[in-house]
Amino acid sequence: MTTERQEAWMRIIVFIVTGIILGLWKGLIQIIVIVHWFYVLFTDERNKDLSDFCQIWNLQMIDFLRYMTFVQNERPFPFGNLAKK
């Protein structure tokens, strides 16, 4: 069992590692948004797999922000589970 002080120090490591991962993932999401936009224009339908991938990133960002603002103590990915829907 970790103390609040230990958990606060751990947040620095989580911030660096998860921040880098989510930042790189964000770049990929930005490309997917453009691709998906053209996909919808030409096919008149959404691609569920692309939407689901973006939704996982959204959930990870929420978990990351909740952890970093001390709303929750459950660590975000890659230190915890990958949130899916």
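[next item in queue]
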Amino acid sequence: MGREVGAPLQVRVRKARQGADRRPFVLDVSLEIPPGITILFGPSGAGKSTLLDCIAGLVQPDSGSVRVGREIWFDSAAAISVPVHRRKIGYVFQSLALFPHLTVEENIGYGIARVPAREKAQRVDEILSAFRIAELRHRKGGEISGGEAQRVELARSLVTEPHVLLLDEPMTGLDEDLKDHIIEDLRAWREARNIPILYVTHSRTEAQALGDHTVILHAGTTRGAVAPSG
């Protein structure tokens, strides 16, 4: 099924688990994330990563539903749970996961291995250009800097043409100049697409530069609805 342009991400999930302090923790949220970048704020242990994992299918909620338009990825009442690889989600973690023995071009193309060769080459070329890393095409993943690797990681997620993009503090540890360049590239990519993007960050600079909306998560629940960033 093709993507519904402008379709929001609708999430209504409950998940009980043991927290980092070994105490019981319950994530219980109901959100509608519109297209654009929604900043997800909250202290450590608030449930931010658990929420992203539930959306991606890495963690199965105890109850609820996850959908984008007519696409249903999870629905406990209907016993639907679409596997991770079929959810058309781009997910960038804090820790990079490039294959050190593959070139940048091979790393980016890894997620679209089944795409016809001509289309694959075109999509890889376009994303290399969009994130200004074309000159790194033939470098190995283990031979590039942290800022370059973060650009490649973003490019690898976005080349799959996801219906939803999840970013879990993707620029932690990078200096401000590198962040500025990546923010500029990500902002340009966002403007060319119309999908929901959920971005976890503790940086107000990143939030102000990128965020269209903001959600505050505390102790597993949201403080207010999705609101415009300001």
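[queue empty]
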